[in-house]
Amino acid sequence: MRVLLLAYGSRGDIEPMVALAMELRAVGVDVQMCAPPDFAELLDGAGLPLVPLGRSIREMATEAMTGTKPVSAESLPQRAAEMFAATYDSVAAVAEGCAAVVATGLPPAAAAARAVAEMLGVPYTYVAYFPTYLPSPHHPPFELPGRPFPPDVTDNRVLWDLDVENVNVLFGTGLDAHRASAGLPPVDNFRDYFLTDHPWLAADPALAPWQEPADVDVLQTGAWIRPDDRPLPADLEAFLNAGAPPVYVGFGSMPLRDALDVTRAAVEAVRAQGRRVLLSRGWADLALTDGQDDCFAVGEVNQQALFRRVAAVVHHGGAGTTTTAARAGAPQVLVPQMADQPYWAARVAGLGIGAAHDGPTPTTESLSAALTTALTAGTRARATAVAGTIRTDGATMAAKLLLDMISGERPPASA
């Protein structure tokens, strides 16, 4: 049996799919991964064959965040159509013989994955990593570029209806053009086409619960976590052992418009708390601001091991980093930039396991204030307590559900 997994997004979109792939391979299922070319080394290390999709997601994110090639309502339909067409061609070329397709990430790519599954007549499932991506009366949708919601509309169901219109306008062109060429009718609701009415939610129920009743039949599996037993580098071990636990500062696969200013503010804020600083370079290319020995910079490391040994984790608020820090019992300060990150910031603050920074650009003063909250004994105790409630079997459950769906024990999402 062979399954195709597609993730068109950043590192936080890829890692959970790798966790699912490993669970599937453990029970004898072959896996074909489709993802941006940025993650060839990551997937090669996991022994997963990669079909690269499109251009570098890091380049695209950097262009959008720095304003060199911003995403706009005018440019998005054409870019989405191009992404759909390229993704469809890449996936269709390797999908023959696959028993199911699982997708996550950017809507045009996910829609292309479903179109391939439709062509093959096999089950298709979309997975989200946070609840607010999915339609619900309990939260509003995201605003899309150039398509603001009317300020006087506050009913969530009305907003989700408006979201359907916006998504159709911005993303539907490529799908409908493909369907027209195949002699198929257009899709009335692009959003529901790629999400389906039975999406999966790969998020921990304690950190990100799905609220019922809702408008879609969501299956929450728990977060998909890939076990990581890599040792920490020797120089990092030496830094950790040379003093009190440092504060980790990193923004993962999130470019920053003013990375140098953010780094300076973070270093000064951490030092104001009497703590050492551990910088993660990431896609923002954070770098040491001076030669003092209370700061250390690292690249790609085992965060599961590292976060157990830090005083706090300052980060952008991606689903993966938030979950990893929560599992480690590390207090957090979230500086959300976009998408799901404000959601995770609110959850961390609400659970009492850290602080949410107000806005995407921290100053020394604002970040120091957030750290003051995160570094209290009470926040540490609460973070430790919540860590004990987080499940680690999400990918195992998802693998079993997928195999049940293939065998016909559960109706496929694309039915």
Automatic annotation (TrEMBL):
It comes from the Bacteria. CDD domains: GT1_Gtf-like (cd03784). The keyword Transferase applies. Pfam families: EryCIII-like_C, Glyco_transf_28. The keyword Repeat does not apply. Keywords: Transferase. Residues 298-380 form the Erythromycin biosynthesis protein CIII-like C-terminal domain. One of its GO terms (biological process) is vancomycin biosynthetic process. One of its GO terms (molecular function) is hexosyltransferase activity. Residues 3-134 form the Glycosyltransferase family 28 N-terminal domain. PANTHER family: STEROL 3-BETA-GLUCOSYLTRANSFERASE (PTHR48050), STEROL 3-BETA-GLUCOSYLTRANSFERASE UGT80A2 (PTHR48050:SF13). This is Glycosyl transferase. It comes from Streptomyces cinnamoneus (Streptoverticillium cinnamoneum). The lineage of its organism: Bacteria, Bacillati, Actinomycetota, Actinomycetes, Kitasatosporales.
